[in-house]
Amino acid sequence: MRTRVAASAVCMLTICASVSHSSELQLFAWPVACELGTTCFIQNYVDHDPSDKTLDFRCGHRTYDGHDGTDIRLPDLADQRKGVEVVAAASGRVAHTRDGMDDVSVKVLGKAAIAGRECGNGAVVEHENGWSTQYCHMAKGSLRVKPGDRVNSGQALGLVGLSGNTEFPHLHFTVRYDGTVVDPFAEGAAKGECNSGRSLWQPTLDSVSNYRPTEIINVGFADRAVTMDEIETGEIKQSPPGSHSAALVAYVRAIGLQAEDEQAIELRSPEGQLIAEYRAPKLPRDQAQYFVSAGRKRGGSAWPPGAYTATFVLRRKGAEIERRSFQVDIAP
């Protein structure tokens, strides 16, 4: 039930630049047409640690070694197939583009097949005063700009995809100043430093800077046992339970889990009776993502009608840090 989530862009620099003159600071709009925390989530931040260890801008580990951007992921491939726009984070000129790479997980293709093209389909936009932004892993055939085009802040560049060195649908977004990587959450933070620096997000994006050490990105019910692949593809959403389903299963997927985290999920009948539960063992190590489920096979000719409720609880160092309840209505 666990898996490593990896994503990479062309450049793997980890140095964070500090801009000499505050007047030159470039502020950025959110580069994906989504609602953070609801229809998209941050999987990885910039790695601030110069060694082989990891450190994000809030002294956590929501990153991996050498990661040079912000990974803005969609909940699953079903959402990606609907078409989610990648937009210019600031006005500027398109310097480089690539298109034509297939939207296939690197787990299928292998890293050798995308060597030198880890960014996948993407674009680089140059802004004023030495700033630039890079947009990676976009959908094949979706790019709407070409080198030399002028773009405005918020203008669509293409769609979120699965091209290049990635296992999940997302945008890898990198900010650079004079060619050096800058963390847009912590401009000016020195190497190895966290809880410092300035946000480069526009003032209207205050919620973007609200650091989320752990997030729930998928919840639902199914009529059978659930796998991680079915959650990732979104296929499991095509199997909702009904009154005559052979089983009733609730599932939750979270990201940013830490070693020793404790997860529990329970399922209750319309009358409030506990009908299934699962308490996962403490995690032996940090996990980029993890899912748990609890379910039960149908005992009679049909499931009693009504609202079935699932509750997921995540505890860290003895304290409850996440709780989510959700329901499914079973008709007669």
Describe it:
- 5% of the residues lie in helices and 35% in strands.
- The protein is mainly beta and 332 residues long.
- Strands 2, 3, 5, 6, 7, 8, 10 and 11 form an eight-stranded antiparallel β-sheet that branches. The protein has a four-stranded antiparallel β-sheet with strand order 1-16-13-12, with no helix packed on it.
Describe this protein with a few key phrases.
Immunoglobulin-like; Glucose Permease (Domain IIA); mainly beta; 2 domains; 8-stranded antiparallel beta sheet; about 35% strand; single chain; about 325 residues
- Residue-averaged pLDDT: 93
The proportion of strand residues reads 35-45%
Subunit arrangement of the protein: single chain
Low-confidence stretches: 6-18
Number of domains: 2
Residues in helices, as a percent range: under 10%
Number of strands: 18
| CATH homologous superfamily grouping of the largest domain | Glucose Permease (Domain IIA)
Class per helix and strand makeup: mainly beta
CATH architecture of the largest domain: Distorted Sandwich
Helix tally equals: 3
Along the chain, the helix and strand elements come as EEEHEEHEEEEEEEHEEEEEE
Sum up the overall morphology in one term.
globular
Examine the coordinates and then state which fold CATH places here, giving the name of the CATH topology of the largest domain: Glucose Permease (Domain IIA)
Largest sheet: 8 strands, antiparallel
Overall radius of gyration: 21 Å
State the end-to-end distance.
Answer: 33 Å
Q: For this structure, what is the CATH class of the largest domain?
A: Mainly Beta
